[in-house]
């Protein structure tokens, strides 16, 4: 009985596995536009920037109104043009 209680307590307190960016992309593409903001906001509530996946992939995210977004850093020699981000469907997440 005690072992079950400990397992249940751990199951309740451990965080759920984080959603991957690919899962977010698929969810947005398969959802009506009226649900896009909620999907993006739910993802951002659990994500850190840069969003790390599998200890090998960094996903840089920016949310807001823009016509284009680019990221500069050590990974591209601090290029003045940076790496262009792509908008996720019709959302304001880049």
Structural account:
The protein has 94 residues and is α+β, with helices and mostly antiparallel strands. The protein has one domain (18-84). The chain contains 3 helices and 4 strands, in the order H-H-H-E-E-E-E. It has helices spanning 2-13, 21-30, 33-46, and strands at 51-53, 57-59, 70-71, 83-84. The strands form 2 sheets. The protein has a two-stranded antiparallel ribbon. It has a two-stranded antiparallel ribbon with strand order 3-4. Helix 2 runs antiparallel to helix 3 (33-46).
Task: Break the fold down into its secondary structure elements and pairings.
Elements: H1 2-13, H2 21-30, H3 33-46, E1 51-53, E2 57-59, E3 70-71, E4 83-84
Antiparallel strand pairs: 1-2, 3-4
Helix pairs in contact: 2-3
Keywords:
disordered N terminus, 94 residues, 3 helices, 38% helix, two-stranded antiparallel ribbon, alpha+beta
In short:
With 94 residues, the protein is α+β, with helices and mostly antiparallel strands.
Low-confidence regions: 1-17
Q: What general form does the structure show? A: globular
Please state roughly what percent of the residues sit in beta strands, choosing from under 5%, 5-15%, 15-25%, 25-35%, 35-45% or over 45%: 5-15%
Along the chain, the helix and strand elements come as HHHEEEE
Give the distance, in angstroms, between the N- and C-terminal Cα atoms: 49 Å
Structural class: alpha+beta
Helix content: 25-40%
Number of helices, where a helix is a run of at least 4 consecutive DSSP H or I residues:
3
- DSSP, total strands: 4
């Amino acid at each position: 009985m005690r072992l079950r209680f400990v397992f249940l307590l751990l199951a309740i307190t451990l965080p759920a596995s984080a959603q991957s960016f690919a899962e977010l992309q698929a969810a947005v593409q398969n959802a009506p536009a009226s649900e896009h903001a909620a999907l993006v906001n739910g993802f951002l509530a659990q994500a850190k920037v840069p969003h790390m996946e599998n200890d090998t992939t960094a996903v840089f995210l920016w949310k807001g109104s823009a016509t284009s977004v680019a990221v500069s850093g050590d990974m591209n020699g601090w290029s003045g043009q940076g790496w262009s981000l792509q908008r996720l469907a019709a959302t304001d997440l880049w």
